[in-house]
Specification:
Layout (H helix, E strand, L loop, with lengths): L3 E5 L10 H11 L8 H13 L5 H8 L8 H16 L5 H12 L3 E9 H10 L5 E4 L1 E4 L2 E6 L7 H12 L7 E6 L5 H6 L2 E5 L3 H7 L6 E3 L3
Parallel strand pairs: 1-2, 1-6, 2-3, 6-7, 7-8
Antiparallel strand pairs: 4-5
Helix pairs in contact: 1-2, 2-3, 4-6
Length: 220
């Protein structure tokens, strides 16, 4: 009997938006991020991400700096509100239906995202997915430090973290199915056995022309 693992990117794949940028906006709305150039800088950095050129550590250092004096407990409370009010309304209905179908078929699901773990975990659980991997941050004095610890789940780092995760699982998976929208996930697309592109970005759409076995879906 074959065991299948279904892996989802999160931002712009399951969620019709980027959770990291939406978190930045949330920090401004809450009066936590006070730099008048904060959102403009976030936008400029995300434009680099879209081109596959983002320095992820630079993004983390800048965008998460405003919350480094907030306890992890209080951040947790903020994330609950953020996911409930800002993220869940943006989840693609097709994504919810697919996850429900996979769960009903007793198939393992995993989210791997280049967003920080404290957000990814909450979104995953809200969608009924118990396993997730995101960018882990250093914690000091019960506060998140805007510094990555371990391997960032970004580009090739997603493969490395996935491989680490696989070694920790009791199940051995025969097939890896991967869903994404982003050119940054091209390494994992080429690693997976089956690939599903959800509203792919232009550069990933170009890559799909070289891989006729990849399936493309338009969700709304």
């Amino acid at each position: 009997m074959q065991t299948k693992l279904h892996i989802f990117d999160m931002d712009e794949t399951l969620v019709n938006g980027d959770c990291a940028s939406l978190w930045s906006l949330f920090l401004v709305e809450k009066g936590i991020a006070l730099d008048p150039e904060y959102l403009a800088t976030d936008k400029a950095l995300m434009e680099q991400y879209a081109k596959g050129q983002l320095d992820m550590e630079e993004y983390i250092i800048y965008t998460l700096a405003p919350m480094t004096n907030i306890s992890t407990k209080d951040v947790d409370i903020l994330v609950d509100e953020f996911v409930e009010t800002k993220i869940l309304p943006l989840v693609f209905t097709q994504g919810i239906a697919l996850i429900d179908k996979l769960r009903s078929d007793n198939l393992q699901c995993l989210i791997i995202s280049a967003t920080v773990s404290f957000i990814v975990e909450k979104v995953a659980k809200a969608l009924g997915i118990n396993q997730s991997l995101g960018i882990d941050l250093v914690i000091q004095n019960n506060c998140y430090v805007n510094k990555v610890t371990g391997i960032a789940t970004y580009r090739e780092g997603k493969i490395l973290r996935l491989q680490q995760w696989l070694t920790e699982q009791e199940n051995k998976f025969d097939e890896i199915h991967f869903y994404t929208d982003s050119i940054n996930d091209l390494p994992l697309c080429e690693y997976a056995d089956f690939v599903y592109l959800i509203n792919p970005c232009p550069r990933l759409s170009e890559q799909a022309l070289k891989h006729p076995d990849w399936k493309v879906f338009n969700w709304n």
